[in-house]
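Z., the sequence and structure:
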Amino acid sequence: MKNAEENNNYRIAVPSAFETVFSHFYFAENKTEFPITKTLLPSFQTILVFNFGARSFLKSQQNTVLEVKKCMVLGPIKQAFDYTLEPGSEILTANFKEDAFYRFFGNALFDSLPIHPDNLLNENCFTLLWEELKNISDTKERVDYILDFCRPYLKDQNQITTLLTDFQDQNLNPIKAIASQINQTERNIQLNQKKIFGYTIKEANRYERFLKAINQIQKNIINESKTDWLNIVDQCGYYDQSQLIHDFKYYMNISPTKFLQFQNDICSSKV
């Protein structure tokens, strides 16, 4: 039987004033004598990671292993990756929503390669922030400190971003609809989408289809129901089962059936 301490990980909700900025914070630590490895599902979010304890590592689908040092940003997370918490490790992550990373840093990331946030600002303020957080033992107090740190730097959404974020009509192409609404070219809306969010509408739509399949599979697991792959294909808008398999290979580098087997080792940063 596993020691309960090894599962000392949880989400921290954010106050309403920051609900358009962060989906949540996440804390995890490893108090066992052995490394713990999990797989993080793609989320299309950008995350800021603080490491306060022993070493922790990320492993990409290309088998590139990277050490998480004091802090780094990673995203938008478009493919799953493994992360390993060594004994004594302790991490805290801030999960940015939609355009929030752009509003804070002034630019979006376009691939998931990690970078130290100070390199984006040409200042050492995040190194200093890490030093302050290191001296705070309570996780909730650390989160509050990060939120206070963010307040002066957050910019307001521009008109295009607000329209893209709030767009709800699944029967319309948001690029075309918004371009027509504000009398701008579709190309300009596309460029703003990529610049501000770090991904295109086409990429987002494909991911949402995959996420719908993931949610349906997990719902079946919770209800102890057998997963009918043909129903998943039909309900989630796939052409056929091979397209579903292709998306699983693309996002997670495993088959749908392997996903079922590895559920206990898979985490999602989505709310």
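The first helix runs from residue 100 to 105. The chain has a mean pLDDT of 85.

Let me know what you think.
H.
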